[in-house]
Specification:
The structure holds 2 protein chains of 2 kinds. By secondary structure, chain A is mainly α. Chain A has 15 helices and no strands. In chain A, helix 5 packs antiparallel against helix 13. The model of chain A has no long low-confidence stretch (mean pLDDT about 90). Chain B is mostly helical. Helices cover about 75% and strands about 0% of the residues of chain B. Chain B has 14 helices and 2 strands. Classes of the chains: A mainly alpha, B mainly alpha.
């Protein structure tokens, strides 16, 4: 193990390490802690210059007022309306593509696979104008569905990479045996491979949820009004309205960050398994 | 009678070609979506970059005029220069992420919670990260402003300064990026062979020498992924610029991704052809990296099978 386990060091070093950990964490998360504290600070504190001391009282009403005085509830709802169909659509498509590329040997297999991989790295700006025109042409401009459609297509690239690698690592004998038994190809997919893909599906579901929830660029390109904008774009426009009302901006930020954070803590193992794909071996 | 004949014939045709056709049937929906929303738009943008187009009226072919205009555009040069700064400074995420990973790779009580909390910034939207750092940098009361004021007697409003604003934004971007790299290395360190480490230890290797000659070679896959995601992150830097400065002050924090958006879609005008030309340049830069990455992956793929 590297570095040398701290249990093997002197007691003094061990104590030092135990003290250093929380201090390092506090410094690391300082911007987050600061914003969290500001979000429960009454506006009178900010007016009197109390930016860093203890809040004079816990102003939970900041959270109430962002929901009553701004469309943030609507923004959050829109985010779900974009994120959930994207997760489902992407998983459905990439299970199919991953199966095709992981199981069958055919001409063009590697070429298509690397097209999906390379597509992942493309800068969004080169897609921007055509995708906007296309969404407009399909009558889906400024709708959550139009945004979800693009996300499904783009994320399919990343998910295909993941699914294909996962499926090609499955034991081939399983599929061969089923074929000998005369099981149809789509039945092999549905009854044999799909149940084995559960861990991959779980990992990708949390990752895609987080990516799409946090997307800002496409939200600003494809949606324009409060009735359709997801929370990232909404927060950006609220930030323009709440000039210097840092207690509101902070409360809004915390609310916008909450769903992916909860998702991460609930599904941590899957999340990290998805992210670190390829980081070992 | 003829029905059954045709039926049998079609069935045999399907049986004969089943193995060839099946993968394509599975691929069709995903491939179609990807072709329509990702592959075709790339070509379409290339074409568009030779036109004058405001998004509404008809496109007018103007040859390479957009590109020659870029050549003399000072805002474009600033953006390009800032992209280089982003790329170079963003690479700091790799060694810094490794440092934190080494710091946290212990088995003391509660370390798992520490690891997840250190990873926290990556889970948060860049919009929120941008707002957090804007608060941290805020003139007059922001903590960084106060600290600088305490040491030098005069605070600096980072985001209002053409000299420092870009660095301020990059620092905000490094925060989640370091967290990402850290988690890649923590996974990598978990898989380092204990036998080799013990053997090297018996040979007297320790500290930096151990890291450099024994550990890092084993972490190469993690380093590769870390570099890939960091390069992409640096070139995709749109959210933070948009949230923290809107490209200002005086356009000093523009990067190509933001400048393209500004030209093609913002209130400054709908110059979509010109925007497409900027996007093509950005795509070209990214292509250099993409081909390197994909080339390495193909080589690994061949080596495996």
């Amino acid at each position: 193990m590297f570095p040398r386990p701290i249990e093997k060091s002197t007691p003094a070093a061990r104590t030092m390490y135990q003290i250093a950990l929380p201090i390092a964490l506090f410094i690391w998360l300082f911007p987050l802690i600061g914003v969290a504290v500001t979000s429960v600070r009454p506006s009178s504190d900010l007016a009197s210059g109390n930016y860093f001391g203890m809040p004079s009282r816990f102003a939970w009403d900041n959270y109430v007022s962002i929901f009553t005085d701004s469309p943030i509830g609507r923004y959050i709802f829109n985010s779900f309306k974009v994120t959930i169909p994207t997760v489902i659509g992407t998983l459905a498509l990439s299970c199919l593509t991953g199966f095709a590329l992981g199981i069958y040997k055919f001409k063009g297999n590697l070429l298509i696979f690397f097209m999906f991989v390379a597509g992942n790295f493309v800068p969004f700006q080169i897609l921007m104008v055509p995708v906007r025109d296309l969404t407009y042409g399909l009558g889906m401009y400024n709708t959550t569905m139009g945004l979800a459609m693009f996300h499904i297509a783009f994320q399919t690239g990343f998910c295909t990479l993941f699914m294909r690698n996962f499926i090609s690592a499955l034991p081939k004998e399983l599929i061969e045996a089923a074929r000998v038994e005369g099981v149809k190809e789509w039945q092999i997919f549905w009854h044999i491979v799909l149940p084995l893909m559960r861990p991959a599906i779980a990992a990708l579901a949390v990752l895609i949820f987080t990516f799409i929830w946090n997307d800002f660029f496409w939200a600003t390109v494809l949606t324009t009004s409060a009735s359709t904008q997801p929370v990232t774009a909404g927060l950006s426009s609220l930030n323009g309205q709440w000039v210097a009302a840092w207690h509101l901006v902070s409360a809004g930020s915390i609310i916008a960050a909450l769903p992916p954070v909860l998702m991460f803590f609930m599904m941590q193992k899957h999340f990290i398994a998805g992210l670190t794909l390829g980081a070992v071996k | 009678m003829s029905m059954t004949h045709a039926d049998r014939q079609s069935r045999t045709w399907w049986q004969r070609n089943q193995q060839t056709l099946t993968p394509w049937l599975f691929l069709a929906p995903g491939l179609l979506m990807f072709a329509v929303y990702v592959v075709w738009p790339i070509f379409s943008s290339f074409q568009l970059s030779f036109y004058d187009y405001d998004g509404l009226s008809t496109k007018e072919y103007i040859g390479t005029a957009n590109y020659s205009e870029l050549w003399g555009d000072r805002a474009f040069k600033t953006s390009l220069y800032n992209n280089v700064i982003w790329l170079v400074l963003y690479m700091l995420a790799v060694p810094l992420g490794l440092m934190i990973a080494i710091f946290l790779n212990q088995t003391v009580r509660g370390i798992r919670i520490y690891k997840s909390l250190f990873f926290f910034p990556f889970v948060i939207s860049q919009v929120v990260v941008g707002l957090m750092f804007a608060w941290f940098y805020a003139p007059n009361f922001g903590l960084l402003y106060k600290v600088i004021e305490f040491f030098t007697g005069k605070g600096i409003a980072i985001l209002a300064s053409p000299t420092y604003a870009t660095y301020g934004i990059i620092a905000a971007g490094l925060w989640p990026q370091i967290a990402y790299v850290m988690i890649l290395y923590l996974t990598g360190l978990n898989n380092v062979s204990p036998d080799q480490v013990e053997a090297a230890r018996l040979d007297g290797a320790k500290g930096f020498k151990m890291l450099w000659y024994v550990i890092l070679p084993q972490l190469r896959p993690a380093t590769f992924i870390a570099v890939v995601v960091t390069v992409i992150g640096a070139l995709r830097s749109f959210d933070l610029v948009s949230i923290m400065t809107n490209g200002g002050p005086f356009g000093s924090t523009r990067v190509l991704s933001y400048y393209m958006y500004e030209q093609a879609l913002s209130e400054y005008g709908f110059r979509m052809g010109y925007g497409a030309a900027i996007a093509v340049v950005l795509f070209g830069i990214m292509m250099v990296f993409i081909s390197g990455f994909v080339w390495k992956m193909i080589r690994d793929e061949r080596g495996m099978s």
